[in-house]
């Protein structure tokens, strides 16, 4: 009976942590137009919300790029180190009610992310309703 109880408890605790652990981590972004790897984004939790920061720019010619088209506090900040995913909250198997910044265009969009298997992250940015927007697939960096 003890073994059974221990096994059930272990599975329950592991299940509670697995979803959050899977979304967080390092993800490779892909350029929509060229289909080339663009950057590495570190997705992390802070105060119960999900954020994502650019931790590596893969094109050497763009390593020193700044967010020239951004507004407010992000204006002219280096893209390397910039927080581009802000304040997502867990909603079932998705994270919603936050924003994503496109540093090339300087635009802020509503955002939803969700896992597509263990090593793919579906990232959707949109204005207004989710039907009007764009999706990307990011790939886990191991």
From TrEMBL:
<protein>
    <submittedName>
        <fullName>Signal peptide protein</fullName>
    </submittedName>
</protein>
<dbReference type="Pfam" id="PF09917">
    <property type="entry name" value="DUF2147"/>
</dbReference>
<feature type="signal peptide">
    <location>
        <begin position="1"/>
        <end position="21"/>
    </location>
</feature>
<dbReference type="InterPro" id="IPR019223">
    <property type="entry name" value="DUF2147"/>
</dbReference>
<keyword id="KW-0732">Signal</keyword>
<feature type="domain" description="DUF2147">
    <location>
        <begin position="25"/>
        <end position="140"/>
    </location>
</feature>
């Amino acid at each position: 009976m003890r073994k059974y109880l221990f096994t059930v408890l272990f599975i329950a605790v592991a299940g509670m942590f697995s979803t959050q652990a899977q979304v967080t981590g390092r993800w490779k972004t892909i350029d929509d137009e060229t289909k080339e790897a663009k950057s590495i984004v570190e997705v992390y939790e802070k105060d119960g919300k999900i954020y994502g920061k650019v931790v590596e720019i893969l094109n050497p010619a763009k390593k020193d790029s700044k967010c020239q088209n951004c507004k407010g506090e992000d204006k002219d900040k280096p893209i390397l180190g910039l927080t581009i995913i802000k304040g997502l909250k867990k909603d079932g198997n998705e994270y919603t009610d936050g924003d994503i910044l496109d540093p090339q265009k300087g635009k802020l969009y509503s955002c939803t992310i969700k896992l597509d298997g263990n090593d793919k992250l579906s990232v959707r940015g949109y204005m207004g309703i989710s039907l009007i927007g764009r999706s990307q697939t990011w790939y886990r960096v191991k």
